[in-house]
Amino acid sequence: MSLTYDSFVTQLANMAPVSSANAEFLTALPGVIDYAEGRIYRELDLLSVRVTDTSVSCSSGVRSINLSTTQGTLLVVDRLNIFTPVGTTSTDTTRSPVYFTSPDFIDASYPSATSSLTGVPEFAARVNDTQLIFGPAPDEAYGMEVVATIRPNPLSSGNSSTWLTQNLPELFFAGAMVFYTGYQKDFGSQGDSPQSAQSWENQFQMLLKTAAVDSLRAKIQSQGWTPQIPNPIATPQRV
Fold first, then answer.
1. Where in the chain are the domains?
2. For a surface tag, which of 60, 117, 180, 232 has the fewest beta carbons within 10 Å of its beta carbon?
3. pTM of the model
4. Contacts 24+ apart (CB under 8 A), 177-185
5. What pLDDT digit, counting tens, does each position of 13-60 carry?
6. Is 205 helix (H, G, I), strand (E, B) or coil?
7. What's the pLDDT tens digit per position in 119-147?
């Protein structure tokens, strides 16, 4: 069954056990949520955290571009396409993929943005959280399509449901209990008391493995690059 913020708080308090109105419990709650969400988002490459942004355009003769933060900080840029010809949008365009490389390669191969060294960008490198550089520098103000991952808004009283609480509630809850039982008894007890934080860590790891398989299946990256459940008997792999 999926969770909401209220049902999560109730279940966490019952498992702790502690009153859901307890001051220390309420103080720890944001950290509990951050811990569980952060671990899951980092350890699973979920399609639900991917966004597509087409709000930014290149500038002619300028090799750098600032990524949009409208949908959140773009943590990992997965794909980048240039819309050609110039002036076209995502509905009537030809996508020219840009390949990621190092800033050193771009500096060495495209040392300036003079007109003789401009064109449709072929390569890009990330120089910080919000900025990319291109090689070659664009010769026109091309539109762009950026596919990247973000961190969704966390579960809170003002955000009563998230993709994790709707689709991976048991994994989210196990992650929350790892943090909260450690918070209650000191994280050092994880090695000494398998009945508390360590046992929840074991549950988290077990659930994480099955969630990881689902994530790969959703991206058609399971066995043999198919959406099938991995099958050790099905060898050689189907094509």
1. 5-47+153-222, 58-141
2. 232
3. 0.82
4. 177/12, 177/15, 177/203, 178/35, 178/36, 178/204, 179/31, 179/32, 179/35, 179/36, 180/12, 180/16, 180/28, 180/32, 181/16, 183/28, 183/31, 183/32, 184/16
5. 998 888 888 898 899 999 999 999 999 999 999 999 999 999 999 999
6. helix
7. 999 999 999 989 999 999 999 999 999 99
